[in-house]
Amino acid sequence: MDTPVLELKNVSKTFPGVKALDGVGLQLFPGQVTALIGENGAGKSTLVKVLTGIYTPDGGEIRVGDTVVEFHAATDAVKSGISAIHQEAVMFDELSVTENIFINNQDRNWLGMLDWPLMRKRARQLLEYLDVPVDPQTPLKNLSVAHKHMVSFASAISHNSNIVIMDEPTASLSHQEINDLYKLVRRLKEEGKAILFISHKFDEIFEICDRYTVFRDGQLVGSGMIGAVTQNDLVAMMVGRTVEQVYPKTDAEIGPIVMTVQGLSHPTEFNDISFDLRKGEILGFYGLVGAGRSEVMQALFGLTKTNAGSMTLQNKPYAPANTSQAISSGLVYVPEDRQHQGAILSLPIFQNITLPRLGGLSRHGFIDMACEYDVARHYAQSLNLKAASLSENVENLSGGNQQKVVIGKWLATNPNVIVVDEPTKGIDIGSKAAVHQFMGDLVAQGLSVIMVSSELPEIMGMSDRIIVMHEGRIAARFDRDTASAEAIVTAATGAA
Amino acid sequence: MNRQTLQQTAPHTTQHQTGNQRFLPDNLNGAWRNRLLRWETLLLVFVALAFFANTQLSPYFLDPWSLSDATFNFTEKAIIALPMALLIIARDIDLSVASTIALSSVAMGAANSAGIDPAGMVAIGAGVGLLAGLFNGYIITRFDIPAIVVTIGTMSLYRGIAYIVLGDGVYRDYPQGFAFFGQGYVYGVISFEFTLFLLLAVIFAVILHKTIFGRRVFAIGNNPTAALFSGINVKRHRMVLFTLVGLFSGIAAILLTSRIGSTRPSIAMGWELEVITMVVLGGVSIMGGAGSIAGVFIAVFLMGLVTFGMGLLNVPGIVMSIFTGILLIAVIGTPIIWRRVVQAQKMRSKMRGG
Ligand SMILES: Nc1ncnc2c1ncn2[C@@H]1O[C@H](COP(=O)(O)OP(=O)(O)OP(=O)(O)O)[C@@H](O)[C@H]1O
Ligand SMILES: [Mg+2]
């Protein structure tokens, strides 16, 4: 059998109130992809940060090849041949693609000065290698979300490291970009690199991984070859019980129309969007990343100005000038980008959850703190949030738990229409079922849900009707019974 | 809202988690609160030291009247520091406050010359301040220009208007009825100014820490985008904050004009930096998002005691402003440097240990 290129033994890391890693081990082999799985907060990202020198472990041993290493800074890890795509990639919107790719390993010329021509050339090669049609000179902010991801991949492989770590790289990608990523992973594999692949999606784990390692609550609970286990085995290891991954689409009674949208248009982002939404309905929006779905939803929420079209909500004309008007009309939007738009990372969990509904928790403008904690605890617990306390800052939570805070925050406003943008991005399988169940409960109570998702099974499993967008226009509409995966994907790629 | 409505409005807990619910305490044995109070505690120690030093410098310092006199040289600035704290927490800043005082004081002087009574003068003084703040807020939010740029502009603009109106002249002869605001006493040695400051400090502490408005100020300061997505009308809140700062600059102008009994266009020159120093010394993050009124309150006294002590030592004014400058840099820089030192220390001990 191969010898591992990277081996961890007995590694621990403690934060105040949380043992994020509790004596875990891990082995990575050349030319193989190892899946690291576990519930939200199991310690996966913490492990990545230990391996990349961002956190120093409290104890344990890291061995690269035959040598024991200690990382004190991100550059140490890169020198040992480890590079990573982080779950919350730090990217600089104002800088160019090239500058972002080489943000922490600039090339220098013989004078010791930054060698921009060389870096631009390498950036062009990397982008070509990854099949990304963007100019290395463009500022990052002009890129779509998918292309931004590709830039972070480019940055990770620019080091030419032997060990590549990917922390939920596909969380916000749609099938096309995911396939591109698979291609990249396979190529890296052929080149003999060892890959650690973190994901909550079992289909991709079984598609591209060779081995698995499972964490639960900071401890190693199992590892081995993927071929030797089933999905149910893995889930049982992860959560310590079985979870049914059926989409719990409850048959809510579909009532009268609550919202209509007529010919909604934006100068550049979308054109002639018309649909209506009924009480108790889940309306799914599918499309490739960049199809304009989020922009349409932000227009519904009063964030994006439109130049044509009209809307009604509850039979009244609806033209929100800002977000607070949208919320008081009973429409809320759960944004996709939790780090910037969804959560306020540097504030405590309870303040995040209650922020949009403070009006209902106060008397004459004074906040009722006891009530505030009650509400926050209610939503935190029903989403099974993992945190040391309600006063913990959101930035200290794992990615999936941050997402739960964002969802809890919007559920707490008791809306009539709730627009969710990639609601289960980065959420583990058990909590995903809980979020879906929650959506089922909401429509059963007479709410209406618009769900933007890039996950086909989620769209098909949860929606009553499906609208597919392509390049800012509606490309196709399906009913639940007539929708087929092929037809949806074809429409999304514009081939229909 | 009571428990029952909470249950009704919240969708029921899903089956999946029952029996598996995590207990989430409100906070970890008050750690949160402790962390918040640490800076304030340190400030209190400094206040005690400064107080002790002053008693050593002058045998008359502990005399009630002399203590009362000592409050006059910081109260007006302190009154502006309160709304300024909110503004800085919301990631904005206003450098035009001292010029607003000049503008407002000139307006009151002109009103006095035109024969308007003290009540009218007070209304004009406060009103001019309010309008100056509103103008700042409008330009900043309407055209999306950084606050620092706009208020540097209006700092010259407002002061410039005062110079145009008054030239190198001076308004004097304020009526008897106007003297109370800056010279009157409410009870014994307790001045009207000082009482007003204490009252306002309580009110601002409640606004910042107990109301929706205060919570939203923190939200905006921590992440304006997420605040916007949370349904907060960010622009309107910023407008309100600038207007508040303007209004209280106007009120400070009333107190100051009344106290010194005259208006020159150079009145309150350089005060903006002292006000901002008080706020930052009080632990308000210059990057926004964090701070407390308690901290600012203590910092005000610290600044007051130190300047008073330097006055006793006959330190010239220019040295005092050098001191203020150094203090400002030290207060902003220390936490940053401290963090680096701690990190380096950790690193070194690890290298030795491992
Ligand atoms: N800087 C920090 N301070 C305090 N606690 C932290 C910090 N970083 C992580 N934690 C805690 O450590 C635990 C593990 O978090 P981690 O991010 O590794 O989870 P994860 O397995 O990556 O989860 P996810 O699937 O949600 O991304 C969590 O309980 C989290 O709250
Ligand atoms: Mg993670």
Please tag this protein with its features.
heterodimer; A: 496 residues; alpha/beta; Rossmann fold; 2 domains; 6-stranded mixed β-sheet; 22 strands; B: 354 residues; mainly alpha; ABC transporter involved in vitamin B12 uptake, BtuC; two-stranded antiparallel sheet; 14 helices; disordered C terminus; binds adenosine-5'-triphosphate; binds magnesium ion; AAA+_ATPase (chain A); repeat (chain A); ABC_carbohydrate_import_ATPase (chain A); ATP-binding (chain A)
Number of beta strands of chain B: 2
Structural class of chain A: alpha/beta
CATH superfamily of the largest domain in chain A: P-loop containing nucleotide triphosphate hydrolases
End-to-end Cα distance of chain A, whole Å, is 49 Å
Uncertain residue segments of chain B: 1-19, 350-354
Unreliable stretches of chain A (pLDDT < 50, length at least 5) are: none
CATH architecture of chain B: Orthogonal Bundle
**Order of secondary-structure elements of chain B:** HHHHHHHEEHHHHHHH
Subcellular location (chain A): Cell membrane
Keywords (chain A): ATP-binding, Cell membrane, Membrane, Nucleotide-binding, Repeat, Sugar transport, Translocase, Transport
Pfam families (chain A): ABC_tran
Protein name (chain A): D-ribose transporter ATP-binding protein
Structure description:
The complex is a heterodimer of chains A (496) and B (354). Chain A is α/β, with parallel strands linked by helices. Chain A has helices at residues 44-51, 74-79, 97-101, 116-129, 145-157, 175-190, 202-208, 231-239, 293-300, 323-328, 338-342, 349-354, 369-382, 399-411, 429-444, 456-462, 485-492, and strands spanning 6-15, 18-28, 33-37, 59-64, 67-69, 82-85, 163-167, 194-198, 211-216, 219-225, 257-265, 273-278, 282-287, 308-313, 316-317, 331-334, 362-363, 366-367, 417-421, 448-452, 465-470, 473-479. Chain A is built from 17 helices and 22 strands. In chain A, a hairpin with a 2-residue loop joins strand 21 and strand 22. Chain A is globular, with a radius of gyration of 23 Å. The N and C termini of chain A lie far apart (49 Å). The model of chain A has no long low-confidence stretch (mean pLDDT 87). With 354 residues, chain B is mostly helical. In chain B, 73% of the residues lie in helices and 1% in strands. Chain B has 14 helices and two strands. The longest helix of chain B is centred in the C-terminal third of the chain and has 37 residues, at 317-353. Chain B is globular. The N and C termini of chain B lie far apart (56 Å). Classes of the chains: A alpha/beta (496), B mainly alpha (354). At the A-B interface, helix 10, helix 11, strand 18, helix 13 and helix 15 of A face helix 1, helix 9, helix 10 and helix 14 of B. The complex binds adenosine-5'-triphosphate and magnesium ion. The site of magnesium ion has 6 residues of chain A, from helix 1. Chain A: One of its GO terms (cellular component) is plasma membrane. Chain A: Its main location: membrane. Chain A: GO terms for molecular function: ATP binding; ATP hydrolysis activity.
